[in-house]
Design brief:
The protein is rod-shaped and about 95 Å long. By secondary structure, it is mainly alpha-helical. It is about 40% helix and about 0% strand. It comes from Roseivivax marinus. Keywords: Lipoprotein. This is Lipoprotein.
Length: about 45
């Protein structure tokens, strides 16, 4: 094989490794939504 074909094959191989190997799984955070209204609290008999 000529040197140009070997170089192109090597370049393609390195490009494929860098494209596939560098991906990381994305992190995600689940946030519990706050309630729209709060439950009433006992404050006494006639307040």
């Amino acid at each position: 094989m000529s040197h140009i074909v070997k170089f192109l094959a090597l370049f393609g191989f390195v490009a494929a490794l860098s494209a596939c190997g560098g991906q990381q799984e994305e992190e995600y955070v689940v946030v519990e939504p706050e309630p729209i209204t709060t439950e009433p609290v006992y404050t006494g008999k006639y307040k």
